[in-house]
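so my prof wants the structure for this chain in the tokens format not the other one, which i didnt know existed until like an hour ago. anyway here's the sequence
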Amino acid sequence: MGRKAKVGSKGPLSSSPSELAAAQVVQERIERIDPKVSELRPKVMGGTATKEEVKEFQERQAAVIEAILAMPVEDLFLIREIKPEMPEKARIFHSVQCAECGEMVAEHRARVRDGKFVCIPCAGEYSRGW
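here's what i got, hopefully its the right format
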């Protein structure tokens, strides 16, 4: 049986389908609390709002925040059973010691200089000579 999980949003840069769906749910909750906030947001964020609109937005946004903080968790988040997909096992690379500074570096990140492994900072400038 799956485990319970809260599906939430990490912010405007969310990209997974579940995060986008959760962001949509939160946006719908905000719309229900005060639809005028969503109407004013593009103007305020775009710099085209009047001083009065900015003040109104800030006041309304503060009220929405207070309402969200007072909401029961069940009203704000989707809580459901999920069956997560497990990612494939990560490839683990060997570490090698930099011949210059002695630091350990992942083998796939090491450079070869004069037949010896060196870390990127010690490798210096890399070019193909073109």
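also thought this was worth mentioning. The CA atoms of residues 17 and 102 lie 44 Å apart.
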